[in-house]
Amino acid sequence: MYKLLLILKYLRRKLAPLFAALAVTLCTAMVIIVISVMGGFLDMLKDSAKSITGDLVIEAAFGLRGFPAYDGLTQRLETMDEVAVATPAIRSMGLINFANGPTPVLVHGIDFAGMDAVIGLQDRAVWGEQDVADRTQLIEEMGGYERQGLERGGEAMREALPVDPGEGNGVAGAWLGVEVFPGNYRQDDGTYDFDNSFVGGSFTLTVVPVSERGTLGSVEPARQTLLVRNDFKSGLYDVDSQTVLLPLGVLQRMLRMDERMGFVGDVDPDTGEGGELQVVAPARVNRVVVKVDETTLDTRTLEEVRDQVDTVVGAYFDEVGVNQPVYVDTWEDQHGQLIGAVQNEKGLITFLFIVISAVAVVMVATTFYMTVLEKTRDIGTLRALGASRLGIAALFLGYGLAIGVVGAAAGTGLAAAVVTYLNEIQAFLASALGVTGWLAVALVGGAVLGATLGVVIGFIRRHLLWWVTVLAGTLAAALFVPALGLVLFKTGFAEQLNTTFSFQMWDPQTYFFDTIPARLDGLEVGLIALGAVVSSVLGAVVPALVASAQDPVEALRYE
Amino acid sequence: MSEPLLEANGLGRTFREGGRSLVVLDGVDFTVDDGECVAILGRSGSGKSTLLHLLGGLDRPTAGVVRFRGRDVYAMNELAIDRYRNRDVGFVFQQYHLLPELSALENVRIASQIGRPRHRKRDGDTETRSTSPRERAEALLARVGLGDRLRHKPSKLSGGERPRVAIARGLMHDPAVLLADEPTGNLDADTGASVLELFAELHREGQAMVLVTHDQNVAQQADRVVTLVGGMLAPTPGSAAATV
């Protein structure tokens, strides 16, 4: 009981413990903010990485040789409780040609409706229905698509935006990753300037077919003109800068992976009669993208589902006599290198900040050691009144605990505020630091100057406090008011200030996300706060042992 | 013959520092009976405070024994000695050693918060076992004339009020013996006299006490006076109660 009383008294009456608590606060906040930003970055990266991959991908081991019987396979997969949707796709290398020359891309042939069900493709479209009106107006201002030789008005544009673009105007439609077309200019704030958007324009795509047996060069490269129907943004630069989406059937035909018919049997070479028209080469794809049932993931890991899907795929292929090898990957397997790198980075930075947080432990230890020295006689008194060594140790450990709890709570609150308003803080630092600093310098500078003058004059006039107060207030107002006037009425000056003095801690042009990704994870925050409390208690261990080992007589005589 | 309340036999205390030995107490035999007031006289460095610390269980003797009601204090384990200091003896230090963060009331109460209170009922004592520690602390402060200073911190108390808080704290557990080290050493004559009157009053009510002092006026209040010279007891000239 006496311990609690003294802990509360020590907390309230002494400045040094407040510094220790401040150290704990700052370290706690620092670690939480770093982990939240890194975690947010990682989450956003993962979410983006899933944009093309879905949860699972069944991929042909030999690339464009692909595998047949994919319709049956997707139907079989969709009978599984664990699978929500499965859709076939092809991924191939290609070259696209805008006016500025060929650019290598990854071409995805997809069933747009099926892919939308798997990855929410429509949500990633830059030109959603909300934007149609704006876009239509913009197109009209630019003279419409007439310059492309394609007559399109608002209504036609609306029709051009459904999930499956089909083949409008006799030209197949494609979606481009938002960074593929160089005219989509990414601005300083991370948003895009779409004034020169290529939506509605046409481009040429070239792919190289591979035969069913995997031979290359037996067929000529396929070339086709496509119409840009939409842009999409996954958030992952690697995806958005080199991905072209087009209808599965179109890409199948270009790659000669569509169903091939031929006469089988004896054909009379003279008449050309005889034989039977049959499918000589079934349609192929080289991947099937799978969305796993969300409730399944509550009880099972994605890896477990992957293994089960692998078994079902193997059984189905055995059943229908397909012997092309395939492998099943999770989306994390597919983007493992990038995600692993960020994960490692998060771990490394977290470790570094935890090491830095050891400063808090040292700070607490130092503060407590000084407190123990300062309280030596009190320790002697308490021992004389019957307090045990254990009781004295518990007093200082409890004191450490109290400082840890106060510091951790304050740190968590600070971090929560910073993480919640991180983008606002960033916006403030980037856009209003100059004016704010200017006003602060005027106000504080005036007060300091006035106080200095006040000290001199007050010393001479023997009325120090009065002169300091009056002159500090007067000069602060005298500098602040004109400074404020300049900012308010000379907007050019304010802009110049904000341009000259700005701090951008997150450059959206460098990073691919236009806002700082940050999220607070309850478990992480709880563990960090607990770690801060434990660190604080650890910092108090040595001083507590020193205090408990004090000889009571020597402690009473301590000067 | 009844058993003494507190007894020291052949008590010795030697300090070792830098390879040298300093004998502070040497073969001291000493007793205090129930309700008795004994003054220990001696010059500075004669070992008075060391003897008081040994009697109160704060130090460890290098020779001899201290018995409280026949029980060897230093043969007990550490927790039992802590309990002995908390329940059976009360200290009043020369510097009072009040805890600066606590009010007068809290300073007195803290003794009961460290250990369980055990109030003996004494003649003329109106308190009962059902008295709460807070009520007892308030009563003790009222008793020493500080009923209106309960919330005052030590820094806000006068030089004459601080020893009174220290005495009240020493009495909080109703100790069998009160051990006071130069209780008037830092006080002016008038304040010292009023504090001495408080000790005399407690003594009249049957409180056993040991007063360490170099002041003859303090010693005159005692039933018995012993003198320490160079760590050994010496007969006190002119004192009828010089025998130990």
The main β sheet of chain B shows up as: 6 strands, mixed
- Kindly provide the radius of gyration of chain A, computed on alpha-carbon positions and rounded to a whole number of angstroms: 35 Å
Q: Count helical runs of chain A.
A: 20
Oligomer: heterodimer
Unreliable spans of chain B: 121-128, 238-244
Biggest sheet of chain B, strands in spatial order? 6-7-8-3-9-10
Q: Give me the count of strands of chain B.
A: 10
Report helical residue fraction of chain A. 55-70%
Tell me the fraction of residues in β-strands of chain B, as a range: 25-35%
Structure write-up:
The complex is a heterodimer of chains A (about 550) and B (about 240). Chain A has two domains: about 1-45 and about 340-555, no CATH class; about 90-290, no CATH class. The model of chain A is unreliable at about 145-170 (pLDDT under 50). In chain A, a hairpin with a 6-residue loop joins strand 10 (about 260-265) and strand 11 (about 275-280). Chain A has about 550 residues and is α+β, with helices and mostly antiparallel strands. Chain A has a six-stranded mixed barrel. Chain A has a two-stranded antiparallel ribbon with strand order 5-6. A two-stranded antiparallel ribbon of chain A has the order 10-11. Chain A starts with a helix and ends with a helix. Chain A is built from 20 helices and 13 strands. Chain A is elongated, with a radius of gyration of 35 Å. Chain B is α/β, with parallel strands linked by helices. Chain B has a domain at about 35-45 and about 75-225: P-loop containing nucleotide triphosphate hydrolases (Rossmann fold, 3-Layer(aba) Sandwich), CATH 3.40.50. Helices cover about 30% and strands about 25% of the residues of chain B. Chain B is built from seven helices and ten strands. In chain B, strands 6-7-8-3-9-10 form a six-stranded mixed sheet. Chain B has a four-stranded antiparallel sheet with strand order 2-1-4-5, covered by helices on one side. In chain B, helix 3 crosses helix 4 (about 135-145), helix 3 packs parallel to helix 5 (about 160-170) and helix 4 (about 135-145) crosses helix 5. Chain B is globular and about 50 Å long. The interface of A and B includes residues 10, 380, 381 and 383 of A.
